[in-house]
Specification:
Layout (H helix, E strand, L loop, with lengths): L2 E3 L6 E3 L18 H44 L6 H15 L19 E6 L7 E3 L5 E3 L2 E6 L4 E7 L2 E2 L2
Antiparallel strand pairs: 1-2, 3-6, 4-5, 6-7, 7-8
The structure holds zinc ion.
Organism: Comamonas sediminis
Protein name: Zinc-ribbon domain-containing protein
Pfam families: Zn_Ribbon_1 (PF13240)
Length: about 160
């Protein structure tokens, strides 16, 4: 560190100083102190601006997501309730009759109903419906399941000759 003379007041000052401690004149070659204080302020304001941008962006994304979900609901409503969805309802219900729903096998069968009603029939002779009975044996049992197309739900179910509902 060397001593130099201030250009303004002529007093000796450090060449490392950014300004003269006597008169306050800036020292050539050293970046003025203000940049050190202004820069963080600028950075702070940039941070604030970007924070506001993120909040604004986040709000927009949220609004878009909400409107998409709303739109999704309206576009889902008119979707066709088909035989696959109908048999899925039956399959799930029949499995619940089994002692071991996880292992129950309810194979796909064709819809034999017509009009508003889907009708699915499983027969024991083909072992299509395999449920566990009270003895824990895997057996084939008949099942008949009816699903209303308009109501999109089961209207009747019988398994092994018993009416479930
Ligand atoms: Zn000076």
């Amino acid at each position: 560190m060397a001593l130099i003379n201030c250009k303004e007041c002529g007093k000796q000052i450090s060449d490392q100083a950014s300004s003269c401690p006597h008169c306050g004149a800036p020292v050539a070659g050293n970046p003025p102190a203000p940049s050190a204080t202004v820069a963080p302020l600028a950075a702070e304001s940039v941070r604030k601006t970007s924070t506001y941008k993120y909040i604004l962006y986040g709000t927009l994304v949220l609004l878009v997501a909400i409107s998409c979900m709303g739109g999704g609901k309206t576009s889902n409503t008119p979707r066709e309730f088909n035989a696959t969805q109908a048999i899925f309802l039956c399959e799930h219900a029949i499995k619940q009759v089994s002692r071991d729903p996880e292992k129950a096998e309810v194979p796909m069968v064709s819809n034999v109903g017509s009009g508003d009603e889907y009708v699915f029939v499983w027969g024991p002779q083909t072992k299509l419906t395999r449920l566990r009975n009270g003895l824990g044996l895997e057996v084939g049992v008949p099942a008949v399941c009816k699903v209303s197309h308009a109501q999109k739900k089961m209207t009747s179910l019988s398994v092994d000759g018993k009416t479930i509902f």
